[in-house]
Amino acid sequence: MEKLIQLSLSGIANGAIYALVALGFVLIFKSSDVINFAQGELLMIGAYLTYMTVQQIGLFWPIGVVIAVILAAVVGVLIEQLVLRPLIGEPAISVIMVTIGLSSVLRAIVGAIWGITPLPAPQFLPRDPVNILGATVGMDKLLAIGLALLLFGILTVFFRTSSEGIAMRAVADDQQAALSMGISIKRVWAVAWAIAAVTAAAGGILLMSIFGGVSGTIAHVGLLVFPVVILGGLDSIPGAVVGGIIIGLIEAFAGGYLPPELGMGHVTPFIVLVLILLVRPYGLFGQKLIERV
């Protein structure tokens, strides 16, 4: 029972971080129909920017984190304007290939600035053990869940009440109708990329604090975005949250109960990806589109 609780909380914490990264992926897809294969690199950039502001510059960590998140949003907007906007009207495969190339470019830039050696990161979240029903769980995992839920709540309020959030929902529903109502599609895309970079940066900061270090391998977490968004639905924001939690739990249970030499903890999410594509390719909450020719 203790092991089940411990694995469950650990899986939910990881799943909440996956959901944050997947949320940005879904926002970009809903607003511009772009499948962003560089989402993991945005997570990595957020972590390294936080390392720069806190560890290298020496800012008080709350101030450093805020500045790093703002810089990550600026990076997201620059990517949209300089890389993606010139590709408007181009075939989808061209945009996909550009985002794949963008991921390599971002890795190279990070490697040129900070090197490829793992760096010790400041610990923002306390790691004191907490006893829950006989299971011992780190405080950092519980706080990661709480912070992820807080960010989801803030974004929910943003989408429901702010003019920019309502405009993003309109564009996601029907771009032509939104354009006819005077909504700037380009501005919505820029905001979507900025939010995607912010959510990815938040996930990177949480992972950096939990792992106690930062390196280029943190971008590999972005690979788990694809099982998450395929499971939840490419165009579903609630699906990103549910998919993240499910994938986090599956990964934790597979790693905890199956023989470690099999390495199934890392493989199981992609097995789920293949099964979902075979059985329900539009995901649990995705919109089922039927085209008649």
Automatic annotation (TrEMBL):
Transmembrane parts of this sequence: 7-29, 59-79, 91-116, 142-159, 188-211, 217-234, 241-258, 264-285
Main location: membrane
Localization annotation: Cell membrane
GO molecular function, one term: transmembrane transporter activity
GO (cellular component) term, any one: plasma membrane
Bilayer disposition of the protein: Multi-pass membrane protein
Pfam family, one: BPD_transp_2
Top-rank taxon: Bacteria
Record keywords: Amino-acid transport, Cell membrane, Membrane, Transmembrane, Transmembrane helix, Transport
InterPro entries in the record: ABC_transp_permease (IPR001851), BCAA_transport_permease (IPR052157)
One of the protein's GO biological processes: amino acid transport
Family to which the UniProt record says this protein belongs: Belongs to the binding-protein-dependent transport system permease family. LivHM subfamily.
Protein name according to UniProt: Inner-membrane translocator
Biological source species: Oscillochloris trichoides DG-6
